[in-house]
Amino acid sequence: MRKLTWAGLTDVGRKRSENEDAFVVDPDLGVFVVCDGMGGHASGEVASAMTTEEIHAFFQTRMDGDRSLPYPGEPGAAVGELVISNAIQHANDKVYVAGMRDSKLEGMGTTVVAVSEWEDKLIVAHVGDSRIYRFRDGRLEQVTRDHSLLNHKIDLGELQSQDEIDNFKHGNVIVRAIGLKDYVRPETAIHERIPGDVYLLCSDGLSDMVDDWSIENVLEANYDDLDEAARILIRMANDRGGKDNITAVLVRVDDEPEPVEEYEYEEEGLPLARREESTQPGRAAFDDEEQEPAPTFKEFGVEDDDKTAPHSPVFAWADDDDEDDTPISNAQTRPAARPQPAPRPQPTDTRRRTQPTEELPSIIVEDDDEPASAFEDARYRNKR
């Protein structure tokens, strides 16, 4: 029996006044999504909420019978990869058009990471620098690669030494995001569905604050309690600065083996399950010379497991690295409620804030002494 166990939390952090992260979880549809919104005013919140809702709606529509896949995928992609890629591209269209229609939402965007079920596999997909980690056999591994300007320059060979990488000044610039262009190319991969694996979907508010070694230890120590693991990860990110919104969704593969079918012996009519132990004939079996020895049965059955291409514009934001004496917010983490599918779902797991949002620049430079301006580079302009 296939089973996924999950837990999810999102928190505003210590520096932000509003939470622009959002997530949606729907085990019935087999889809788990985390988004990290960006943009001025409340547009980052709108972008992340729209993306989670539209991806969820795409899977619901597919469940209702519409199997169309209108968007192109990577050559050789499996059906499961095409489905999640189409869902993300569908959401990108919605966010991009909304930004074009409303000047208050212009320039909004969001990252996205997603895990979906497909046959006996899991599909992971992402756009931007939110991450997916996999915890397997006591070891943590990052299974997505950030769509960042840093990684792009490494791929081009422009940054080669460790010193060049460490001293790169635009490490927080991303080159791919939802809503910035009329087309986006999600990156997808197929993963074997291994019982015991734990997947962590998170925004960079967690991955920037908590190192991989610490995440690995938290998941190992709280493997059987994903809710507690999520709470600890959020708390650790806040304790180490909480410079951004923090979201963590954990998904554990708890597949159980299929029950062994029982067969009966015609001569005795006893089910196989009752012949699990080997038996030997006793002395009474040989008292009668004409009596045949009792048959010997070997152990049968299986024990059940009890465990249940970059494009323009380049878009980013700068974190406030200066320490201040402002009091820590009392925002509390809240567990996500399990959504109920609806004809046009508005998933309850999507976390949004409705209070007024402080104005944030939609495009940021690293130098606080200079006015905000676009990161311009002719080599990245009009590329996909």
Spell out the blueprint of helices and strands.
Elements: E1 4-11, E2 21-26, E3 31-38, H1 43-63, H2 79-101, E4 109-118, E5 121-127, E6 131-136, E7 139-142, H3 149-156, H4 162-166, E8 173-174, E9 187-192, E10 198-202, H5 204-207, H6 212-221, H7 226-239, E11 246-253, E12 315-316, E13 334-335
Antiparallel strand pairs: 1-11, 1-13, 2-3, 3-4, 4-5, 5-9, 6-7, 6-10, 8-12, 10-11
Helix pairs in contact: 1-2, 6-7
Can you characterise this structure?
There is one protein chain. By secondary structure, this protein is an alpha+beta fold. It is 22% helix and 19% strand. The chain contains seven helices and 13 strands. The strands form three sheets. It has a six-stranded antiparallel sheet. The protein has a five-stranded antiparallel sheet with strand order 2-3-4-5-9, with helices on one face. The longest helix has 23 residues, at 79-101. It is globular.
In short:
The protein is α+β, with helices and mostly antiparallel strands.
Q: Which tags fit this structure?
A:
384 residues, alpha+beta, Phosphatase 2c, domain 1, 2 domains, five-stranded antiparallel sheet, 19% strand
The tally of helices reads 7
Helix content: 10-25%
CATH architecture of the largest domain: 4-Layer Sandwich
Please state the CA-atom Rg, rounded to the nearest Å. 26 Å
Q: Please report the distance between the alpha carbons of the first and last residues.
A: 42 Å
Which residue ranges are poorly predicted, with pLDDT under 50 across at least 5 consecutive positions?
A: 272-289, 294-384
Question: What's the structural domain tally?
Answer: 2
CATH superfamily of the largest domain: PPM-type phosphatase domain
What form results from the Cα inertia axes?
Answer: globular
